[in-house]
Write a structure and sequence with these properties.
Blueprint: H1 3-38, H2 43-76, H3 84-111, H4 121-164
Length: about 160
């Protein structure tokens, strides 16, 4: 992988992390305040939704950092060394943490009495989205676990080949 491509991809990940930081500090709190201003009964659920959104974005930021670390290893040609497993463990942890946030949101929406300015379809959509997101996060985490297993096997095979040569 060329250095220019690694740098470009890492720059995109850095922009995504900074965009997430902007969303955490400005967009989410401002949007929540605007929604409460438009429909005051939302005040009772404002804090759980804001905290969930901020923590979920933090999980995505950690995942972006882990991907950046793996990209660095790809650029250096050190993907098949044992240090790469740490980055995959971080990625798995970030994905699983994001899935836990979505699962918590699903449970919260299921049991909370969330007011609705209309017919409740926005709550139903959020409930279904959190359920699908939870399942998707579990699936992606399991795929990365399988990828980590393949990476571990490749590292072992490379070490065996280095001993033979």
């Amino acid at each position: 992988m060329t250095r220019a491509l690694v740098f470009f991809l890492q720059a995109l990940l850095a922009i995504a992390v900074l965009g997430g930081l902007f969303a955490q500090v400005v967009v989410i709190p401002t949007t929540a305040a605007d929604e409460v201003e438009l429909f005051p009964p939302y005040e009772s659920v404002r804090l759980p939704f804001v905290v969930s959104a901020i923590v979920f974005i933090a999980c995505l930021q950690v995942l972006a950092v882990a991907l950046g670390g793996m990209l660095q290893r790809a650029g250096d040609g050190t993907v098949f060394e044992s240090g790469a497993l740490a980055w995959t463990n971080i990625a798995i942890g970030a994905i699983a943490s994001g899935g836990l946030v979505l699962a918590w949101l699903f449970v919260f929406i299921t049991f909370a009495d969330i007011p609705s300015p209309a017919d409740g379809m926005e709550t139903l959509g959020l409930w279904m989205g959190s359920a699908v997101g939870t399942v998707a996060a579990v699936g992606v985490a399991l795929l990365v676990v399988v990828g980590r297993h393949w990476l571990r096997r490749a590292i072992m095979q490379r070490a065996e080949l280095d001993q033979v040569v």
